[in-house]
Structure formats: structure tokens, C-alpha cells
Amino acid sequence: MQRKISTTLIGVALLALCGTASAQWSVRGGLTHIAPRSTATDAVGPMLPGPPSGISIDVKNKATAFLSLAYGLNPNMELELALGYPPTHDVTARIAGNLPPHIAAFNGQKLAEVRQIAPTLFLNYKFGDASSQWRPFVGLGLNYTNFDKRKSTQANNALNGGPTDIRLTDSWGLAGQVGLSYRIDERWSVTGALATARVKSRLTTTTAGVQRNIDIRFHPVVFTVHLGYTF
Amino acid sequence: MNQWLGLTMVSAAAMLAACGGGSDLGGGTETDLSGARGSLMHNPPLRVTALSAAEFKDRLAASPSGQSLLALAGAPKCGVDVHYIEYGTVGGAGEKTNASGALMVPTGGVAGCGGARPVVLYAHGTTTDRAYNIADITEPARPGASEGSLLAAMYAAQGFIVVAPNYAGYDVSKLGYHPYLNADQQSKDMLDALAAARKALPRIGSQDGGKLLVAGYSQGGHVAMATHRALQAAGQPVTASAPMSGPYALGAFGDAVYYGNVNLGATVFTPLLAASYQKAYGNLYAQPSDMFEAAYATGIEQLLPSATPLATLVAQGKLPQTQLFSSTPPAPAFAAITPPTQPPALAPLFALGFGSNNLVKNSARLAYLQDAAANPDGAVPNATTGAQAAAPQHPLRKAFKANDLRDWKPQRPVLLCGGNADPTVFYGANTALMQNLWSNPASPLALPAGLLTVLDVDSASAGAADPFAAVKAGFAQAKAGAAAQGGANAVVQAYHGSLVPPFCNVAARAFFQQVLASGG
Lengths: 231, 520
Fold this sequence. Notes:
The complex is a heterodimer. Chain A is mainly beta. Chain A has a single domain (about 1-230), classed as Porin (Beta Barrel). Helix content of chain A is about 10%, strand content about 60%. Chain A contains three helices and 15 strands. In chain A, strands 1-4-5-8-9-11-12-15 form an eight-stranded antiparallel beta barrel. Chain A has a four-stranded antiparallel beta sheet with strand order 2-14-13-10. In chain A, a hairpin with a 7-residue loop joins strand 8 (about 120-125) and strand 9. The longest helix of chain A has 17 residues, at about 1-20. Chain B folds into two domains: about 30-250 and about 405-515, Rossmann fold (3-Layer(aba) Sandwich), CATH 3.40.50; about 250-400, no CATH class. Chain B has 15 helices and 14 strands. In chain B, the strands form three sheets. A nine-stranded mixed beta sheet of chain B has the order 4-5-6-8-7-9-10-13-14, sandwiched between helices. A two-stranded antiparallel ribbon of chain B has the order 2-3. In chain B, helix 11 (about 345-350) links the parallel strand 11 (about 325) and strand 12 (about 355). The relative contact order of chain B is 0.11. The interface between A and B is large, with 50 and 46 residues. Strand 9 (about 135-150) of chain A pairs parallel with strand 1 (about 20-25) of chain B, so a sheet runs across the interface.
């Protein structure tokens, strides 16, 4: 499913790109640091304390390789499809202090690893012109996030009460970025960008047939440094 | 688009799709959704909570009810893991269904907590709460938490594995009614829970020691005895049983109620029984309004168990609080039992069962009473043989007979425990009646000496030699405490549901330990 959507997205991007004759292609590679800055509800479901259950999670930061393709529509506008090597984030327990010791003991422990695939299509506006040394830009876009790989740790299984299947729903949401490019020469440039997106997901754990849910909102701060090559 | 770019696009897509996705559970789970009797749906089953002995003790010590339980059950010797099992079983008409329950295992390095342990198979008492889950002791206010905590403290924390079904029709069970006091179905439900639990034990680090002890309280007392009977009939090993405060002699008990000895809770038990037996036998009535007054007949078969609290159902006019029968006699001959005035001590209790907002139609009561007079029970209204009615004709009396347990002789030790002033499940028509049938030398069901132990917790101690002296003293103290707080009425209200259960369970545990110690 997620692959189909990703492929479709790339296809849409390509279609959008092929329309304009005077276009310029760029490919960019670099490093990105993702601070998900998640806020999550307390877990809801059968045989939990509460409500509120006092059992929640945090999603940890992760750095990964960055890759994007950009297509210049005109000297100031470009479409950019930001990809990257799918990062795997650690998910840790956030447990209310008033819970019994055998539950509170899990606080801070790693419960899961989740890998996200989050292609984002931006429409960027670049200030200045092609010959400017420094070009600030702003971008508005659409983010799709899919959590394609989830791994439950022994701590999570102990907390949930058995081997636990973890699923997170896909998210579609607006994205935005600001950045600054430095032109090295006609072909090469180096760029720093700060991006964010609206990402919402419902996490469902299934342990021996019993399902519990946590709703997560991400307020990510994504900092990227990359080197770009324009054809 | 040049080739280089195309390559980049392909590799970008490849990057996205780099590795296979999916979920890694961090352990294996077996799933059996066949619904076959005794199948365990998820193995290992969910562990609801894992309490160390010290933590369990602290938890009990934190509340007044926990403190009294701690005082009675003793400090936990073992930790307790509470698991939630879901299993396949059958309904009252033999239809395939599912049910859930608790599997508690003792834990910890202390001797008598790990390794192979004896199993207590426990049947819970009547509840109107559809969401009853005896495995959910997470919060004290949950419907099964009180009885679940009692089991954990009394048995699991002292080294017993506990298997306790919620019964078909409760919690996640898909059955739309509960086969209440259906001896055949309920014993199957118990044995299916046991079979499922036994499948789980190796996966949760526990081991069945091969000793099976069957216990239950109130409705569960009947279920426990029916289960002991079913195990024996099937030639399966059982070590001992302790039915407590149960309606064992349903025919006698039912007749007593229709003769006007209306018990506390009758307006709840009657719809549960009617729905159960109508589903199982299909002949109780053509429509519910044949049995129930028009004000209550609509939807009464689906009323209980309910997600709505009982008090709300009463407030909504779905059930009368206590008025089972009309205060108008169904026929002039029955004026003296509408309501009965004898014995004087019980007359006020019986009077509560009569009024103008009655649940059961006079025509239904009359038909029942006429059959009871024509085909009398051996114990009610007059004690003759003590045996079941030979050939009842009324469908409800037939159903009671089909589920009356005055038809067997246990071959393994039995403790019958109760309190003689029980206003809900009458002691005389049930416990004392079984005692007489099983111990009177003239009875065809008389047991060999030593097989039957009967404990009336509400009786005077027989002195230092009385093995239950401490239990009786404790009960007397609790009863006096309730009386001091709320008077005689408070004692009546608390007697069956709160006062007797912990003391009978303490006695049951001591009885089981003694049977095990003597090589049982």
C-alpha cells in the first residue's frame, strides 16, 4: 500500500515537472536531523489503569540521509520532492508517577522502534535570482507519512502483557520550510533548511487480541543541510 | 529528462522501498480462532498485571477493603501474574460461542510459589454487569475487581493457580444472554476455561501440579458443584471441591420462593433464570408476557446482564426493586402465603417480595403452585424424602429439576460453606438439604464418613477442636461490625454478598490445603 502511494506521489511530481519546457532539474543530497517533538495521548483500551491510564510515549530524535529532487518552474519557483533514507525512531515510555511501581518502572524505557517513510512535496519560492550568491527560500507543501516498520521491545511486551503488534495509521498534512542556499557555482550549491509538517497518527497495539490506542501529534523540526547539483 | 536523472528517480524510489515493512512483535503468539470448546484464542494470553508479593501487599494495605482482605487471607507469600484468557465454549442450547476469564499464577522465588502448583477452578457469583471481567483487577471500581482481588489474595498469592471464567454472556463473549444456573452449560464453560488455561500454562512459565480444586460462591457455588459432578461423570481427576452459598437444590429453592419465601435479589434472579431456561429448553412460555407483567415483559429476555447499572434499570422501571409477586393472592387458597407471615423473623423479608408493581404474573405463579402441590418436592413445603419432585409438569419446575444437584454422590471431599441466615440463597433449602441427603444414613445418597464437611460460618464455635473456630469468630465480628454501623437491615443487605464470601473462601482454602496435605 505505502509503496503504491509513494510511487504515485513520485509519478505526480514527474507529471507536474514535465509540463514546462524551460525547466531545470536539481538533485540534492545531504543530512537531515528530525526532532519529532511528539505529543501523545494516554493509552486507551481494556484493562489499563485509569482513565486516564497515565501510560504514554515519546518519539525520539533521529538523523538520516537526505535526498530531494527539484524542478524549477521559473527562476523563483520550484517543485521539490524531499525524500531521504527512512529513519527509524526510538519510542520510549512516558509513565505517570502515581502508577504502581511495577508500571512506573517502565518510565523512559525503549518500547519500540518505528521506521517512517515521509515523502514531502514542496512548492518553494526562492528570493533573488539565479545569479544571487545567497538565496533564501520558503516552501509550502504536502507531507505523507507512513510508518512501515515497527518493532516491539521486550520492555514494551512486558508493559503491554505479551508479544505486541504495533501499527500506526498513515498521515497526510501540510508542510512548510524556510531555508538559505549558497551558490558555489553554476551547478553546485549548498543549502540549509528548516522544515515542519502536520503529522497525526493513531498508534494501535494488539497484545493477545487486546487492542489499545494512543493518538500522536508530531510537531517536527527537521533541519537539513544538503549539497545540490543543477543540470 | 536525461538518463542520469531517470536513474536518480529510480534509486530514490528504491530508497523509499528499501526494506520490507511490517511489524515485529518481539515474540511469538499463537492464535486459535476455531472457537472449538476449550480452545485458547491467544497464547500466551494477555498478562493484565504482574504484582510482586510485596507490591500486592502494599496495594491491599492501601484501602480499607484491602486491609480486611489482607487480615483474612494473610500476607501474600507469592507474587501474582494475572492473565486474561479468551476461549471457545458453548451456550445454553449447545451453540458455539466464546468467553473470557482470568488465569492467575503465583510467582516469585519463595518455596511453594514456583514450579508445579495445584489449580483452583473458581466460579463467580451472580452479576448483572455485562462488562464483568474478573481478570481486570487494575482499578478497584471495575466490575470484577473485587472478586478478582479476593481470588488473587486468597489463592494465587498463597501458591494456587487460579482459573476463573467470566462465563458465556459476559465481557467479550458474543453470546447474547447468560446461561444462568444451567448446570450442563456452566460446567462445560468451567471445563473449557480450564482446558484453555492449561494450554497457556507452559507459555507463561507455570505448571499444572495435577491437583484440581473446584470452588465457587453463590451462583458459582451451584456451578462449582455441577462442575465437580461433570468431572466425576467424565472420569476426570478432581481433588476436592468447595461450593459456597449456592442454590444446589434448585427445585426446592424455586418452590420455596413461589410458596412466598421470596429471597433478596429475586427480581434479578428470575429474569436471568427465565432467559437462560427459555434459550435452553424453549418451553417456558410462548412469549415473555405469559410469565412477566406487561410493564416488564418487553425486552426482559435481553435485559440482563446489562451495561446499565442495576439501580438505573430499577429507576427506569425496567425491573421492580424487590416485588416479585403480586400482593393479591393468585387464588384464595394461597392467601396465607401472599405474603407468608411465618416464621416471624423472616416475614419482613418475604413481605418485600410482594406488591402491586410485581414482576411475575399471578397466573404464572398460580400454575407453578398448582404443579408444586400436585407434584411436590421432597423438601418444600414439607420435608419428606428431601429428594427432587418425581415428575413436575410445569416447565419452570422441570427446568429447575434438570439443574437441581440432588442427584449425585461425590467421590472426592466436598466442603459446603454458607451462613444459616442467608437472605439471598437460603441455607436450609440448599446447604442443609444437601448435607442431610449426603449424611443421613437413611438417604440413598449418603456418603462415606469423612467425605463431606459442612461449615455454617454463622454458628457457634465447637471449641478448641473446631477447625473453623477462627473463621466463625471472624464472621461473628464482621457481622457485629455491620450491625453496629447500619443495624439489622445492613446485616441483611451485606450478608450474602459481602459478609460471608471472604470467610467461606478462607475456610475453602484451609480445606483444600488440608486435603492436599493428606495426600489428596
